Amino acid sequence: MTFKRMQQLQLKGKRVLIREDFNVALSGDEIDNDTRIRAALPTIEMAVSMGAHVILMSHLGRPAEGKLISEQAQYSLQPVAARLSELLRTRVNLVQDYLGVVPTTAAAGDISLLENVRINAGEKANDDGLSKQYAALCDVFVMDAFGAAHRAQSSTCGVAKFAPLACAGPLLVRELDALDRFLKAPQKPMLAIVGGAKVSSKLGVLENLATKVDQLIVGGGIANTFLAARGINVGNSLYEPELVEVAAALLESTNIPLPTDVIVAKELSGSAPASTKLVAELEDDDMILDIGPVTAMNFAEIVGTMKTILWNGPLGVFEYDQFAQGTRVLAQAIADNPGFSIAGGGETVAAIDKFSVTEAISYISTGGGAFLDYVQGAVLPAVQILEDRASKNQLAVPHNVQPTGNSEG
Predict the structure, then answer these.
(1) Which domain holds residue 146?
(2) According to DSSP H, which parts of 33-115 are helical?
(3) Does the global pTM surpass 0.85?
(4) Is 346 noted as a catalytic residue in this protein?
(5) Smallest Cα–Cα separation from 153: which of 390, 391, 345, 369?
(6) Which of the following is catalytic: 14, 15, 19, 36?
């Protein structure tokens, strides 16, 4: 890709503003999973080693724009700052008042984290005024947040337009390289596993993958719609009748093996009794909540023959143990495969963690929506602006900063 990369630049003595994706799940002040934070560490450490004054920025959740963080403290990045301090073994200061503030001189190696960008009025609208204020904070802007690269917002796109220099960070580059290895230079045969609740939420992904892969395994509610397209009574299971014809067309054009047996229950709960049934034996009040053992074995055998694998979405409701075996078997089969595997999406990463196969997956993406958008062939706005800046030889639009919006974060 034709954009500047952070490691190509001279950062010594520079103020380097790095957009990361620290949108982590919290239980109170406790971080449930710090995978996204850990993924950013190599970028931060590299910038520090290059002599930069590092300024980090991120969003967290969906706070109200223009409202003080003190009035919605559950969206504060303070827990992230604390975790970064632990992992980096150096103090990471959380800065709340930074908009319209003239940057002070800081020592090389200093690290600070700006409070949640989504409390700033104009962030989601990619407001030029806000973008210029971000750009005024730095000498170099680094886009490293693949998980937010599909959003055209001030902290992902606008700042890249106005910063003196804009480049891609190592994490963003690794993400794009891994996905391009699957999409543009795969070893054959290749397989995609796409699970989840609805065909409608992943239709573009399914249609694009159908033109590339040798086999496409579907799971979850998505598989139910495909079963219905084959004339199977899916009972009380989640499916989309309005997309049955679309599923039927994909079945005709693509090699999509369907479940022959499934795990069912009469309700979705952690205490619901589960039973195994052939798909031809389903009753009207049955809910399909996982693939059956024979199907899991058959799918695992398919996985074993592949050289390139993409996985997005669970095969069943793996959060409950009685409906987790299908996802567990497929996760282990992918882990056992010596070929290249890439996995992405929040539920997928949670399953990988639950079944302890993290180290055996070739690449685990930090992106959810960005992962899906890129797989379906969409242009990621935050990547496009970096390419635009590179093609224009990094001539930034001049910025005369006028403070606007909320300055507490």
Answers:
(1) 6-172+379-391
(2) 35-49, 78-88
(3) yes
(4) yes
(5) 369
(6) 36
